[in-house]
Amino acid sequence: MTYSPDPPATARPVSSASSSASVRMPVAHTEGDRALETPYLQIENVHKRFGSFVALRDIYLDVYPGEFVCLLGPSGCGKTTLLRIIAGLEQQTSGRVIQAGRDVSSLPPAKRDFGIVFQSYALFPNLTAAQNIAYGLQNAKMPKAQIDARVAELLETVGLAGFGAKYPAQLSGGQQQRVALARALALSPGLLLLDEPLSALDAQVRVRLRTEIAQLQKRLGITTIMVTHDQAEALAMADRAVVMDKGYIAQVGTPHSIYQRPTTPFVANFIGVMNFLRGVVASSGQVRCGNLLLDAPRNEFDMNTPVQIAIRPENVKILPQQDAFDSSLPNVIAAELEEVEFLGSGYRIGMRLEGDAKDLITSELPADAAELLDLQVGAALVAQLPPDCIQVFAQEPVRA
C-alpha cells in the first residue's frame, strides 16, 4: 500500500451550485507532440453524483509520463473529488480510470500504484520523521537495512537529513510537509497525488516549498497530479493546468496558454485578473462599448451580437497626455482616475473611461512609470487598450 495512512474518510463537501444540463463534448487535452505519446493516466467519461447533486460530469483527461498536472478551480468545482476518484478513495458513479494501461476503476486504494500527500500532512504524531517515512516500507516487509537506507535517502532528498529522530510536533509546518512527501515517495510509486499540500503553510514557506516540490518532481520524473485553488501555484509548478468549474473541465493547457488565451470568461477571470467591458459587435473588427468604438480584431461574432471584451490590467497602457491626440494609435481613450492601490513593486489603478461610464477598468504600472504620472484621485489620464491584447467573448447574462 503506497498511500499515506489515515486519509480523510469522506469527500470534501462540494458546492450545491447548479450546473448546466446541456451536453458537453470531451475536451481535447493533447498539445503538440503529446498526441503521439501514450498517456500514463486516462480519465474516461467520469461522472460522480452525491445523491441528486452532480459533482463531476463528462470528465476526460489524459496525463502523460513524467508530467506535472494541476487541477485548478474554486471551492466546490470538483477537483478534490476527481483526485479522490483517481486514488480510489471515492468511487465514480460511472466512467473509467486507466493507469499504465490497467483499468483500476474498481480497485481499492491498496491495489493502486500511487503515493498521496494530504493538506493536513496526516503524519503519525507518535512516530518520528524516519518512522513515518518507513511505515509503508515496513508494511511491504522490506529488510531493515534497506528500509534504513531508503529512509536516509529520502530525508536527504527532501532536505531533512539529520531530522529523522524528530517527532512531528518538533517540526515546522514546511518540515512536516516534507516528511509527508518523503513518505509518499518511499515505495517509488508510479503516480504522486498532492491534495492542496501547501495551503496550510504561511506565504513565504509556501513559495519556497512549491519551488522545491517542482524541482524534485522534475528530478525524479514522477507523474504528478496536484489539486490547488491557488492560481500562482498552478502557474509556477504545472506543465499543464486543468481549470475546473462546477464539475466540468473548462480548459486544459500550459499555464502560459491558459493565461494568454483563455477560452471562456470564467477562465479569463479565474486565472489572473481581467478587465471586462460589455458591448455589441459593430463590425468584424470593432466592438461598441457605450459611446466607445474599439478595435478588436480577434472577433468572430455576427453584427449586433452582445459581447464582452477582455484585457489584462498589465496590457492597459497609460500614455503621456500629448499622445491623446495621436491618431495613429488605436483605442486611445481619455479616463478619470478613481482608485489607486500600492502593490510594493508598482501600482494598480482604477479608471473610468470617457464614453463608458458603466465599467471601471484597471491598469498595473511599475513604480518607475507611476512616478511620472499624477496618481491623485480625479486626475485626467490617457489610456490605450492595444487591439492585439483584447479578447472578445459572448456576453454572459446578468444574474440577479
Automatic annotation (TrEMBL):
It is an enzyme of class 7 (translocase). It is a peripheral membrane protein. Residues 11-26 have a biased composition (Low complexity). Its EC number is 7.6.2.9. GO terms for molecular function: ABC-type quaternary ammonium compound transporting activity; ATP binding; ATP hydrolysis activity. Residues 41-271 form the ABC transporter domain. Residues 1-26 are annotated as: Disordered. The keyword Aminoacyl-tRNA synthetase does not apply. GO terms for cellular component: ATP-binding cassette (ABC) transporter complex. It holds the Pfam family ABC_tran. It comes from the Bacteria. It is found in: Cell inner membrane. Residues 1-10 have a biased composition (Pro residues). Its main location: membrane. InterPro entries: AAA+_ATPase, ABC_SmlMolc_Importer, ABC_transporter-like_ATP-bd, ABC_transporter-like_CS, AminoethylPonate_ABC_PhnT2, Mo/tungstate-bd_C_term_dom, P-loop_NTPase, Transp-assoc_OB_typ2. Keywords: ATP-binding, Cell inner membrane, Cell membrane, Membrane, Nucleotide-binding, Translocase, Transport. This is ABC-type quaternary amine transporter. It comes from Thermoleptolyngbya sichuanensis A183. The lineage of its organism: Bacteria, Bacillati, Cyanobacteriota, Cyanophyceae, Oculatellales.
